[in-house]
Each structure stands twice: as C-alpha cells, then as structure tokens.
Amino acid sequence: MEGQILPPENLTNEAIAERLTTTARKNLETGSIQKKNLIYLELNGCSGNIISLLNGQNPDFEYTLNSMVHLRYSNSLMAAEGEQAIEQLLTAMDEEYILAVEGAVALKNNGLYNIIGSWKGEPLTGLQAAKMLGEKASHILAVGACATHGGVSAAKPNPTQSVGLQEVLPDKSIIKLPGCPVHPDWFLGTLAHLLLYGEPETDNLNRPLMFYSTLIHDRCPRRPFFDRGIFAEKLSDKTCLFKLGCRGPVTRVDCPTRQWNGHVNWPIGANTPCIGCASFGFPDAMAPFISYDTTRVVKDE
Amino acid sequence: MSKRIVINPLTRISGFMEIDVMVDQNRVVDVKTKGNLFRGFEQMLIGRSPFDAVYFTQRICGICSAAHSMASSLALEDALNIEPMEQGRYLRDIIHCCEFLQNHIRHFYQYTVPDFVKIEQNTLFQSDHNDFRLPKNINDRIAKHYFDSLTFSRLAHEMLAVLGGKAPHNHGVFIGGVTTQATAEKIVHIDSILTKIIRFIDDKMIPDVYDIANFYKDYFHLGGGYGNLLTYGAFNDYKELGTLYVDPLVFTKGTVEAFDENNIQEKIDYAYFKSVNNSNEPSEEVTEPDMDKENAYSWVKAPRYNGLPFEVGPLARLILSGAYENRISAMDRTIARALETKKIAEIMKILIQQVVPDVDVQKKYDLPESAAGRGLIDTTRGGLGHWLKIQDQKISFYQIITPSTWDFSTKDDNGYRGTAEEALMGTYIENPDNPAEIGRILRSFDPCMSCATHVYRPGKQVKTIKVF
C-alpha cells in the first residue's frame, strides 16, 4: 500500500462520521480502546431523543450497546425498575462514565416537578441527579434542545422554571448537541469521537464542528430559489420557504446533507420551513414556526 | 399483614411514573398511580400562533408525537372550518399508521418483552424478579427478535419521514392533511418497507406474543379492571372507503353504544388542581395547581364518560370493532397490541392503493379573529383530544386529554378509581419484595406518562436528601 496514490479523502460530514465509527469498531475489536460506561439520564422532556437514538443505523443501537459502551442506566430501556434501577445508577457512579442527558433541568419547587426515581423512600429529583452525576462524569453530553438550553420544556412562561444542563453545572465542560430531537448521527458520531480521540472540536457554544458548522441556508437545495427571489406562499410549495418563516438562515446544522430517518427526508424536503430546532433560541426565538403573512418584516434573519 | 410497595421509577415506559400499592396477605388492596413530571403545555400554548400548535404539541411526547400533530390539525380544521380533501386524509392517515407501527413494535419488544424474556447479553437487562418461564430456545429466539425489532421500528419511522420529513416530531401533518405530495417513487418506497414490516409482524411479532401468552396464562386472569371500553374511532368514516377499522363507540356492561363527545368530563377531585371556573367540560375547564389540596394524591386528572372511567387503546378498539372476543386482561391487552399492528399494516396497504400522485392539498390559510375547535382521534394508545380557542388570531385556550390520562387517571368523587388502578386491585403478588405482576399489568396499558402527566405531587418542601 505504501507509496500508492489514493483517491482524495471524502470530507463530507457523513464520511467523517462513518470513518469515526468504523475506526472505533476496529480499535475496540483489537482491544486498543476499552468500552466505556454510559449513563443516559432522561429529565424534563418528551424522551424523544432516546427514541431518535434507537433509530440510529450505522452504528445502530445493538452495535452501540455491544461494541461501543456499557449502557448502565436508561429509564426507557432497562429491565430493572424502582429502587433497584436507582441502585444500578448509583453503582455505575463508582466507575468512570460518560454522562448523556436529555431533557431540561426543572428548578421549580426544588426540582420536585421532575422526579426520576426514589431512593430509600425519598424522591430523587432530576435536579439532584443532574448535579450529582454531572460532577463525577468524565465527559458530559447535553442531548437535544431541552438539555442544551431548556428547549420546549422552558418555553414561555416556563411553568417548571426549566434550564439547560449547563446552568446547574456551571464549571463543567459540556458538549452540546441541540436539536429537537437530536439526530442519531450527531449523538453517535460524537460518542465515537469521544471514545477514539476524546472531545471533538467544538464552536464557541460547545457544539461539535463536524455536525454544527454550517448554516442550513448555505447548503439548502432550495437556495437557488432564494437567490432568485422565488418564494413559497403556502406549505407544500417547492420553492424557497424563507417568507413562511424558515429559520434555515440562522440555524447551524447539517440537515440538508444528512437528512433524517435513513437519510430519506427532512423538513424542507417535506415542503415546510425549518423551525430552527437546532438553534439555541428554540422554540420561543424561532416562533412563529409558520406564518402566511409573507409581507411581514422578519427579525433575526 | 399489610405491606406498602412503591415502584419509582416504573421503567420501560415513556416518561416518569410512580406506583404506590398496599398489599394485604399478598393481595392488592389499594393503588395509587402517580405521574412524576410536570411540563405545562396548556399554559405554554397561550398566546402562540394557532398554526404552531401542530409542531409545538408534538413535543409533548417523543414516542407518539405524530398523534399530537393529528389531533391539533383536526382541532384547527374544526376551528377554521376546513374540510380536508380525501387525498389529504389518506396521506395523513398513512403517516399516522407509520406511527402506530413504530410505537407498537417498540412497546412490545423494547418495553414489554424484558418483563417475560431473559436477555442475557447485557447488564442493561438485569431483572429484579426471577419469574422467567420460557424454554431456552423460545426465550433466546425472542431475545434475538428484541434487537431485530429495532430495525423495524426504525423502518416504520423511515416510512413516516418519506411523507413527514422526519420523526420523531414530523413536519408533514398539517391542516388539510399533509404538506407533501405523493409520487410514484415515494409510494413505492413506503410500500417496499411496509412489505418488510408485515413479514416481521407475521413471522416474528405475532408468534412471539402467543408464545409468551402460552407460558404466562395466569395473565389472562390478571389486570382486568372495570371492563368499560371507549374509542373515538380510528381510520373510519372515509367518503369512499367507509370505515376500515372502528367507529366511535363505547362499551359498558355488555352494551355497545355510539360515542358522544358531550359526555366527556375531566374531574380533579383527587388531583392537585383547583378549578378556576368550576367547569369539568374539556372545552372550558381551566385549572390551577393546588398542591395543598386535601385528599389529592396525583396531578393526573380523571377523564370520565357519563361519569365512568374507561379503558382506551388497542384492546378497546379490537373488541369494539368486533375483531377480538370480549376478554379483558393484561395478556389480552398485550396480544391485542400485536394483532392491531397487523391490522394497521393492512389498513395502510389499502390507503396506499387510494393515493393519487402529485395532488397538492395545501392552501394559504387565514386565521379568524376568534374561533373554537376540537380534534378527537384514536391514536396508538387510545383516544386523544385537543380543544382550542382562538382570540385575536392567537391561541387563548388549549386543553389536551391524552389516552394515558384515561388509563392512568386518579380516583373521582364517585369513588371510581382510575382504569389502571382498578386493574391492579385484588392482584395476588407472589413476592412483594420483587413484584413482577405490577409492572407487567401496568405496561400492558402502554403508559405514556410524558403525555399524561402534568405535575408531580411535591407535597411539603423537601429537605436535602442525605444519601446524595
């Protein structure tokens, strides 16, 4: 192989993520890296991120479980229930672990608006769990909009006083994966990078550059319509959705090229505007999601 | 000898739930089901654009998000006086079918199977109890199907995304039907996946559920409850196709009657709410948290029909449509979920055949200054209702009653327990220290507490927990 001229390396985000997971698999197989413990915590949210993660393809969940991490705790998936489940959570804390959190931290009433279990007859709040597990974790991933900044759980008037994970762990480095929900590749690609090389390169808001570096608008297949001023007047039109409220111009993430659910489609492909679910201001700063008043002055953009 | 059993968290459900059970000589003599999460969507929706409700309400739930987009679209169509084209309904209902498939496959394998099948290969599946009865060959086959099932849930979401853009939290379902147009390529894409899913249901899911039922026959006698069944109707009332599944019906004490939405009330007698306007009507009721209310023990409200609690979901639909003999138990519920998965796939095949390519069902919609509407529809877990009012072109009122609120409601002033509470009453608990029965019975209802819960009972301001 030495000296052989290879074709240029594919530098798309997809190719990079695929290379990462392939390399991770090889290194695990050869024993040059070890499986790490993963604690997956669900807090104040809809549990949509874990469902999205189960949609992962390469790697898929079975592969992730068998070849990448020891999943030590997951409210949605683990067989144990009640205090035995919480006991497994506490036991997992004795070893090194990566912490992934989906959902916001509800501060109201001392965290009691979100109880995730009980221990010795006392409630364990999401707030307590986030602090306790976050302080000891080797790496922390905030998975989805609620965990990165409060998301829909913190939408006005924020009845639960929800905040993003960083607010209760101000001194910790947290990798942030905004999105509602997170794309399985954003999470699993980041996880693969962590296992192989440590924390990936991030932007000033702690988002991995490999997924969150470009504006949707800049890679939107409907960009030529925007440039020529051809705008949709209703959902289902095939032209630029900017005037219906599309947040592609302010949202940094790779949906246009990665797409969703087996890479088959994405919101703009469904003739609807991007609602900016991977932006830190989602949802309130991204609302209204849809407006037929195409004459209005659109702020933000 | 009395003993209290508290299970918190009840894992392998959507959301957070606590079960508080009293047993006397191993028999359940009292039950409280409690939700452990408050989000406050009905408050959050006030003042938002009515159009945004379709995408916003989906965020109530990550496993049944499309259900909320269906109900809110119907509520908006009602408020805006829009009758969707039949092609719009077909495409929207195809998306809804995809969610049923994703949801039922996931619930059966990922949430239910670990209750009955030992999955050896990972500590994640370490169980608390030891009541595993399947012979090794059957056990290992179903354990393998657990992992296979991930592929088919994922494929169901892939079909959903072909028309809906993405899942969870699709973009395609909207007023008028959907935002996408069918094309030959999309139809074939969906039909090809559906064919694979049907093979999985026939060859694996249905034999697996019957194998489990065969070795856990006692569960045909557990988890019955009141036996009142209700459906708002599912895949019904098409102009040309008529009813493919079930019309809106209720079943009480052996009698089947037409469903009348005016008979729904939502009670708060044992829930931590006070009424702002003394109304139990879903279209009017406004409540405020009241954490010090006496006798209240949960923040899940109590929907009632003609004053009675009702069971909703796959078993209710199968029985009311005449497709299942009238037996109600935890195992019947689980079997019904698998049989319904097959039924939905067949309905989806029929709907796909009706689709005409390239039909655009969208229009530019104008918001009225004021209006009211409601959308009632049977979704994966049962009847879901959204009620909304518009004032000054903004949402001024929003009410949601979810299927899991029906099934996991609190007691009411007539002394009726919630449906799932009643289903647990009298259950013999073999080992109160590691009870297998409670979780199995509750999971047979497929609890979606992300949808059902509004707030956890905070009780007194809690001191720091020393353990941590």
Automatic annotation (TrEMBL), chain A:
InterPro entries: Cytochrome-c3_hydrogenase_C (IPR027394), NADH_UbQ_OxRdtase-like_20kDa (IPR006137), NiFe-Hase_small_C_sf (IPR037148), NiFe_Hase_small_N_sf (IPR037024), NiFe_hydrogenase_ssu (IPR001821). Its EC number is 1.12.99.6. Its main location: other. GO terms for cellular component: [Ni-Fe] hydrogenase complex; cell envelope; ferredoxin hydrogenase complex; membrane. Its cofactor is [4Fe-4S] cluster; [3Fe-4S] cluster. GO terms for biological process: anaerobic respiration. This is Uptake hydrogenase small subunit.
